[in-house]
Amino acid sequence: MVWVMIYLVGLGSIFSLIFAYYNFQKGTKMEHGTPVMRDIADAIREGADAFLKREFSLSIPIIIGIAILFTIIFTPWAGIAFLIGAAMSAFAGLVGMKAAVIYNERVANEARLGVERGDPSTLGKALNIAFRGGSVMGLSVGGFAMFGLLLIYLIVGMLLGYANPENIVEMTSWAGLKFVLFPQVLASYSLGCSSIAVFNRLGGGIYTKGADMGADLVGKTELGLPEDDPRNPAVIADCVGDNVGDVNGNGSDLLESTIGAVVASAVLPTAIHTTAINASIPISTELVVRMMQYPMSFLGVGLLACILGVAYVLVRKPSNKLSRELNISLWSSAAIIAVVTLVLSYYYFGGQDFTGVEFKFGWISPWLSAMTGVIAGIALGMLAERYTSEQYKETQNVADLAKEGPALVIIGGTSTGWRSCLPACITLGGAVILSSYFSGLYGSAISAVGMLSFVVATVTVDTYGPISDNAGGIAEMSQLDKKVRDITDSLDSQGNTTAAIGKGFAIGSGVLAALSMMMSFANVGEGSGEINILNYLALGGAFMGVGLMHWLSGVMLNSVCKNAGEMVDEVRRQMREDPRILAGEVKPDSNRCIDICTRSAIAEMKKPVLASLLAPIIGGFIFGPLFVGGFLLGTILDAVAMATATANSGGTWDNAKKYIKSLQAELIEEFGEDGYNEIHNASIIGDTVGDGYKDVVGPNQDIMIKMMATISVIMLPVMNAFNLISYLK
Hints:
The chain has 729 residues and is mainly alpha-helical.
């Protein structure tokens, strides 16, 4: 049985990484663009590398310090697992981002050559290249995540024998703390992934939005320059930000969501086993082991299915029907997973004794819970599209409000984001109820695994967006034929929709993963149990959790404001001191803007990262595990609403601006040139407000709640042994 899991995960991760390497190399061998295009692409690449070097100079000492701390407090295996998790997340983000900066230029060049040839299939061919570039990120996320997890399982689980529920407890050498070794090591691996993800997502988000807002506020609003105009010194920094934030950050985010879900679903069976034994219920140890291995096998199937789905899109004849092409990999991967995992569920659970577990419908129950997650993930993506795409009335109504000025644009976009919370929360709440009905405590964790089983396809489609966006920037800065920019704009427009879908998917999967980890916290370890939310400690913790998440949102927005403010001052300074820049006679100093964004992003990310790591630990040392359980619940519930509202409001404002631009001729005819400019500027202001919402606050909420839940699981034995309130009693 265990070898089936090893083969599925091993083959899935290895084939994913081989396929990623093949697509990476294929991009390097594609034809470069013009010398000007190549110079711009090189500047983007150098800026992205500079950001990562400075980020690693901050993150690596912290990562090593935490690993040493885990080694001292718990076991060397916890420290090693933490380092492996950080390494896997860093490798995935680095490889994906390197591919993105290569494929940016290749997409723009394909569009250029197609226009020169008059090829009617150019749009489809350019999409195929952008999709291939995105697949490197997607395949790297799935491959590195599961390869590292398999490595931990083979060493700690099998070699040392700690994956068996009868062998999971060990005394540490420090203060005689008793803890569950295998879940502790798995959680340490998950936290390693989270630590890199929060650096990439938060630091990259602050960077990209500072650059984007600086470029828009001065270049578009004050000077009336077109988007990605080469005279704007912040444009290169904006393109760099797309790669470090939307590619590197998003990939790391979904990688740690995947690991969080599979770790939580592998940890929970140990809690079910312990609970049953304490209640004198004769639970089958073999069944518990199968429950631990099933989620990893499920993800192995998901990797193999997504490889087929991605490959199918790449080998078929390119089509100009963008939405259909991008959805093929998602739907085909999900269909393969649904069929194969049904057989997998029967293999693992058919004929087993289910005494002590709440499998309502026997062997098929875990599969039903997983499919609930798959359906919920697809539904969340569709809801995000419904509230952000320019094809629907929500975004069109916000665009119409621009005729009345920026105030109503902001109010309308905020209203859209808030209203989108209800269907999203109904979807997630329904998924939790239904999956738990099928499989009890195990159900919600497996539903998160199901939702993330096609993460490779999701990240591939999502990464396609910033690659297309950068391709448009390169085309504009290189002053290529307007038809080239029309092609890249078409790709980018579809990319905005896929980005909104990706954010909805990331939020939903992150919430379910954090909820599963919270359940692990509540049910694993000596002295823990169900969280009584009416208890004064848990209730007080819930209030503080809500407050912390709002405070973190405010801190992140303030960081974006500081970064954007510095960028605005710099762009204004360059334009004021050298009028030749605006005349197009000399190049602006883009490197100065890149350096400002990099320094500001690294400096501003420290406070929210430290707060996320330390808040549950400090709360646990003062008030104990029950307080932390309520605290985690508060953070999760607040994050659902905040992340959904900010992501969808930002997406609505972004696409409302693009919708207005698509109606330029009609609006000029109705309101005149000046009237159109006022309407367009109102939408730009709304989009600028939304930049910090959708790319900083929204996506970082789910990373932080997962990180807080994971550190709580790891530190649970210390909280049990040392907390102030227990001494006061």
